[in-house]
Prior knowledge:
With 125 residues, the protein is mainly alpha-helical. 60% of the residues lie in helices and 11% in strands.
Amino acid sequence: xxxxxxxxxxxxxxxxxxxxxxxxxxxxxxxxxxxxxxxxxxxxxxxxxxxxxxxxxxxxxxxxxxxxxxxxxxxxxxxxxxxxxxxxxxxxxxxxxxxxxxxxxxxxxxxxxxxxxxxxxxxxx
Length: 125
């Protein structure tokens, strides 16, 4: 979501188009509080505080987005996933997303992160 918000990002165009298409569809989008915090942090550091808060408010305030909190058990499962992949550079946020998505039956992720495809998810854009 960060790339869709940052007009100077190298992949902004594809991300912005894909996000607009997702929001114009009927499906509900799901985002975890960990991913939301990550998006806020990236936007804060790369663009600024006003834009970070605006983007976060837009995501949270959208009737199309379901905010979920993975919880402690998902965190432990994510740590197990990381231990099972010692040579890969997967963030704890991403590993928690994998666990949460699998538990919810979510097969598609809006991300430019190749780790999601490596884990068997379909990615957009």
